[in-house]
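Dig into what follows:
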Amino acid sequence: MNLDQLISLDRQHVWHPYSAMPNPLPVFPVRAAKGVRLELEDGRSLIDGISSWWTCIHGYNHPRLNAAATEQMAQMSHVMFGGLTHRPAVALAKKLIDITPEPLQHVFFSDSGSVAVEVAMKQAVQYWHNRGQPQKNRFLTIRSGYHGDTFAAMSACDPVNGMHHLFSGVLTQQYFAESPQVRFGEDWQESDIESFEKLLVEKGDRIAAAIFEPVVQNAGGVRFYHPEYVRRASELCKQHNVLLILDEIATGFGRSGKLFACEYANICPDIMCVGKALSGGFMSLAATLTTSHISETFSSGEAGVFMHGPTFMGNPLACAVSLANLNLLESYDWKTTVANIAAQLQRELEPCRQLKAVKDVRVLGAIGVVELHQPVDMGAVQPQFVDQGVWLRPFGRLIYTMPPYIIEPDELTAVTGAIATVAKTL
């Protein structure tokens, strides 16, 4: 089929994320991808400034990841994980245990970040059931958060300003503390944690766990808040006999400047969710890690097992590539790489603060954000970025970049320049 036919069939039959049918937003067919560039079917080349929704930290078609996939495919691409195991899953689990905080000792694999959150929430509920406290089945979270699009995950997303408010009538009602207001780098104010503490005091006997994204609230607004909030929240959860789940799906594997954002607070959660960059964007894979204290209650509980089991759990191809991706990350000085990206983003995005349409500019690690006063018109703005030779996907009032770590300075300048150029037109 020619390009026009491809686009026409896509618009008639393919339902894209956060779109309607027929899809009113423009789509840009991709023919190939390599390094940080997407090659479109019409011949144009775009610098990917958001790492395919924050996943491709080492870009596309990386030879080490390709080699890992090819080697694994020669053995097996998939086998069920119920009653069977295999080297890629075991090796990846060991790697995750080695690089995450020491108390995390057990790994449950799943297919996506949303499912990793579902697993974490189910683990917390079943943990308390195992301990004879089934009334502890609600969750405490903070406003402006985002944890995924499945039902339990949606229930912990911001209930007013989040994208899931249409489902509020059927979602489990959770407890929402006010979002942290003390920004990363500012002086800590103890009053920032008062709303969180108040809910623990009043509702702690019903709360299974607190769940939030440490330091960086991602799709809920790309906000950077004080690490002391995370430390104090961890402390309060222990005091009130509530588990702590940290959602590191977007922040994990170096994106914030630390390997995991909880390191800024020097704490370890009871349960941690990882995904997105885990496989370097090569395949869909996520994981939920927990402590021995939690996992050991399951064999003695009513069910005798944890009641969850995704069909493609522990997919060997995904595990093999993910292990290669994490080994690749360890093979170079990623901390300096991310710090250099952060410095360039700060330097090149800061002038946007003077633009009429811009409310705020903020940077942390390999994350750069230009916040506008008004929401963007996606149908109009996204083609403007394509015309500038970059791929960015703004949402709400945010134009942001989370580039691959392998991006070169001149390529990153093209991304920040496009942001400034488009922001000037708004």
